[in-house]
Design brief:
Number of strands: 18
Shape: globular
Strand content: over 45%
CATH class of the largest domain: Mainly Beta
Largest sheet: 7 strands, mixed
CATH architecture of the largest domain: Sandwich
Distance between the termini: 53 Å
Helix content: under 10%
CATH topology of the largest domain: Immunoglobulin-like
Structural class: mainly beta
Mean pLDDT: 85
Low-confidence stretches: 1-28
CATH superfamily of the largest domain: Immunoglobulins
Length: 275
């Protein structure tokens, strides 16, 4: 059997650690990244540079490779990252972004600065763009010939670039009830927000479950999740209360960051939602 290369000797496990998982990533794998989110207002044709800090808190050196990424938020509210998502092209800043260095080795218990540069093209209309910088661990020179199972860890910094002053255009499109996935019992409320505009927004507000007297039984806040431009985004709220004990209503209030707060109330009708 040929074992002369690292790929024949080591099975690599991909663990993609996003901003929400960063504390766990630090504790378990010793790699840190800061900041994890950058929101930058620029003009067409501008060049902007800044710094990210990459930290190795482990007792051993790590090797890290950087890359520019596209991303979107899927129907479960999970960010998905890849080197290219063609569907994101109208709102992607990936091709503007460069990172230096592209690959480096961090000694144990050390930090280093990664410089990023955004080169904004000329002639852009007002809208927001998004992309990411990903940092993935690689085998060090000493590990290439070693036997064993190693974890490849990726940490990501998300960029949101605002060009001009686009208007936020959002609405509450739908409020429904669904059975919880992968569980025998339980329900989740699903709120679908529609972004008609060219600027991302982070909704504030939340969902309330009301009994037949209008009293609040449960409250849930919207997570800090962006609704990217020109799309629908599902927000999932697992309920502690069974709808079978109702009747109940769902009341949703959303602040899109504009001049008014939108509200809608939906009555739960079990014959329509029973799986």
């Amino acid at each position: 059997m040929r074992t002369g290369t690292y790929l024949h000797r080591v099975f690599r496990i991909g663990l993609f650690l996003l901003a929400a998982l960063a504390p766990a990533a630090r504790a378990q794998f010793g790699m840190g990244l800061s900041p994890l989110r950058l929101e930058i207002a620029l003009g067409a044709g501008m060049v902007h540079s800044g710094q990210l800090t990459l930290t190795n808190e482990s007792e051993k050196p790590i090797r890290v490779r950087s890359e520019m990424l596209d991303f979107y938020i899927d129907d479960t509210g999970t960010p998905q990252f890849a080197r290219e998502y063609p569907a994101e092209a109208p709102y992607s800043c990936r091709t503007w972004l460069s990172l230096n260095p592209r690959e480096t080795e961090l000694p144990a218990k050390s930090s280093m600065t990664v410089r990023y540069t955004l080169r904004v093209p000329d002639g852009l209309e007002p809208r927001s763009f998004h992309c990411a910088a990903g940092f993935t661990t690689q085998p060090t020179a000493d590990q290439v010939g070693a036997m064993g199972v190693r974890a490849a860890v990726r940490m990501v910094a998300a960029f949101y670039v605002l060009i001009g002053e686009p208007v936020v255009e959002g609405e509450i499109e739908d409020v429904t009830l669904e059975p919880l996935k992968n569980e025998s019992t339980g329900w989740q409320a699903v709120v679908v927000l529609r972004n008609w505009g060219h600027k991302y927004f982070r909704p504030a507000g939340g969902l309330e479950l009301l009994d037949e007297n209008g009293s609040v039984v449960e409250t849930h806040s919207f997570p800090s999740l962006p609704v990217l431009p020109n799309r629908r985004q599902r927000f999932l709220f697992p309920l502690k209360t069974s709808p079978e004990t109702g009747p109940y209503r769902l009341r949703v209030r959303v602040d899109f960051g504009g001049a008014e707060i939108l509200q809608t109330t939906v009555t739960l009708r079990l014959p329509e939602v029973t799986p």
